[in-house]
Amino acid sequence: MKKVLGMVALAATVALPGISFAQTYAYVNTSGDVSSVDAASADAALMTAPNIGVHSGVMMIDDSSNDVLDQTVTGV
Length: 76
Fold this sequence. Notes:
single chain; alpha+beta; 3-stranded antiparallel β-sheet; 3 helices
């Protein structure tokens, strides 16, 4: 039984690293609004951020109550 539980725990760790180690990243969308996305890495955030602006990057933030979110950027 211990061996089975150990194998299940290992499989869950390998299969779900994005969920296990997700961070919140802020980015500017195509409308110029600062939004957030949860991802395992900055590269993953860049690939999965919906409507990310052409010149936007991502910035890791500590929590979703960060005052950077819900701001508007001009000149996008």
